[in-house]
Write a structure and sequence with these properties.
CATH architecture: 3-Layer(aba) Sandwich
Number of domains: 1
Shape: globular
CATH topology: Rossmann fold
Number of helices: 8
CATH class: Alpha Beta
Length: 169
Amino acid sequence: MGKNKPIVVIGLMGSGKSTAGRLIAGALGLPFSDSDPFLKGKYGGSAAEIAAREGADVLHEREAEHVIKELSGEPKVVAAAASTVENAAAREAMRGALVIWLDADDAVLAERMRSGDHRPDFSPAAMRARREPLFRGVADLTYDVGVLKPEEVLAAVLRDMGLPATGQG
């Protein structure tokens, strides 16, 4: 594993995909790609703005497009929107990647979701009911971000990849 294989960080909104993804990319010396900047750059709005303007289905298509596009290029770390696991083509694209699932209790995720206006207003419990089996189906590694800080997630990922914990910080 490592620099020769792309990494996809998945999880429900508020799980810290962007933060952990940046740390992992930095430690491995890989480029980082996040769905939020992709959406703003290509479609001129945040996930919440696109959902309000064009509907959730269009948003989810664009989030899947991000993952598929990024996994077709050089290895990198991709923070994938939670909806991407519902897209068969995105799940297929993830088969060639190391997929890291960040999870936490619904109460923790609900509190974190309130911290940003770029996120659409969704219930973690409703999203979990729909997506948890799909997350389980694609995830290679799973971490509880309700108890692990981002730096601890990085250390666990490096350990589980068989890599030294150097490069942190």
